[in-house]
Amino acid sequence: MSFDISLWLLQDGVTNGSIYALLALALLLVFAVTRTIFVPQGEFISYAALSLALLQAGRLPGVVYVLLGGGLAAAALELAQALRARRWRHLPRRLALYLLLPGAIAALAWWAAPRKPDLAEQVLLVLALVTPLGPILYRIAYQPLAGASILVLFIVSMAAHYVLSGLGLVFFGGEGLRSRPFADAHFRLGVLDVSAQSLWVVAASLAIMLVLWLFFSRSLYGKALRATAVNRIGARLVGVRPELAGSLSFAIAAFIGALSGVLISPVTTIYYDTGFLIALKGFVGAILGGMGSYPLAVLGSLGVGMLESFSSFWSSAFKETIVFTAIIPVLLWRSLTTRQVEDEEE
Amino acid sequence: MSALLEADALRVFYRRVEGLHRASLRVAEGAIVTVIGPNGAGKTTLLAALMGLLPCGGRARYAGIDLAGESVEARVARGLCLVPERRELFGDLAVEDNLRLGAFTRTRRVDRQMARDLESVYARFPRLAERRSQAAGTLSGGERQMLALGRALMARPRLLMLDEPSLGLAPRLVRDVFRAIAALRAAGVSILLVEQNARAALQVADYGYVLETGETVLEGAAAELAAHPRVVATYLGLSGQTARA
Fold this sequence. Notes:
The complex is a heterodimer of chains A (346) and B (245). Chain A is mostly helical and 346 residues long. Chain A is built from 15 helices and two strands. In chain A, strand 1 (186-189) and strand 2 (192-195) form a beta hairpin. Chain A is globular and about 70 Å long. The radius of gyration of chain B is 18 Å and the shape is globular. In chain B, strand 7, helix 7 and strand 8 (190-195) form a beta-alpha-beta unit. In chain B, helix 3 packs parallel to helix 6 (141-153). In chain B, the strands form two sheets. A six-stranded mixed sheet of chain B has the order 6-7-8-3-9-10, sandwiched between helices. Chain B is α/β, with parallel strands linked by helices and 245 residues long. Chains A and B meet through helix 9 and helix 10 of A and helix 2, helix 3 and helix 6 of B.
């Protein structure tokens, strides 16, 4: 293997790795706040990537029906809950959130799709279409079971994954789509030929990480999410509703999923079920980082990206096998070194 | 006098032993009311039920509204706050962030108020000001108790429920905590105090209840309760007296 090739593989690894890093951060966030292993993250990637490609073709992406249907179901749940408890105070705001907002976004998409908006507008529209799916999914599938064990929540996640991926097949069809690159330019950096698209990916990932860092270290809502992750009862005692924290973390995760889909859609052809494998690699990155530390998860994900690009060079048939096998030694090492003692507060 | 909090025959069915059968109590506006009782009598359960952390039967009214169906967060927003026995601080977050989150239910109001409340908590507990940027998990037991109190104060409580505030503290710190409780009442906060340290609790309180095996068995003005033979024998354990009379 020549120096040029390894540089090229390195670039590929960093590009993919930074997308995995974003996904790993979202998974960690959702797990810390709601104890949910967020399997359906992958569907948001597929939805966003396919929606972007369809918008570029001037067609209305089918995700609007998922959005409207999901919003309707969530609103029905809110209505049933309000009826049962005979409490109407919060109902108008929640109905607006689950009916009016998705309706407005869907109407915007319906109006804009045939007019072929420019790239920035397409990307914003895709983010607006996919991000509300996070809180809607949380409301329908997870909030009623918020007190359940991690295993039950995981099973819910698997179910949600299959349902969303099935809906993806219904509304997007089975053929793969690829969107146009954000920019066609290439830069020569020594021997390396850097595509503008991979610069976009890396820059956007860094920007999102910075925004996340600012959100969690500066804003009160970010701190409220951290507080819920650290101490659920304490968070309730200061008035942070677990539903608010769950909904917010799912919104962030869905936004990150959608953004990852947008970033990756010009790089590879995306099918309705491709996102699952991509999100799974983010999950591997989070595990390599110990499933608890955000910076380590980023490093782990970059590692996954490298491992993937180098193993696809040496033995591309075993690419996925090598990546997913990498977690075994890490898990072994962690189960041998971590003591199973819960840290008590006192 | 109208009662700020009124609980009538509260029952809690609990998976584990410590349950509540028939606990009734009243807290008058501006009063310090204490609940004393042995370990496992259901004192912590009583507070958790009043806070909405545990589902309970019976009736509880606070500030004129029925508490049934009110969520924990809604109760906090109405000024009913709990400083739990386990403190439940946010260990990874800085002391100041813990305090700011204490005011989470009133974040939509002006920020200037928040700064003023923060200063008043720091004035009350200067140690917290020294450690404002330190992670809460690194504090000592006494500092944790101060932080838990301060965090609850940031919510501007109308009725503050304190669960064993003196637990695990050195005697000098216990004195500080009880002094802080008396000062809070002077500032207009009503207090429901659960304590194993019955002597100190009855000294600071206006009115008291004795809770045994999940039932309120005795009540009275704090001074009378402190002189009641049963309380003296069981909870105050005066030396020179045969304990098991």
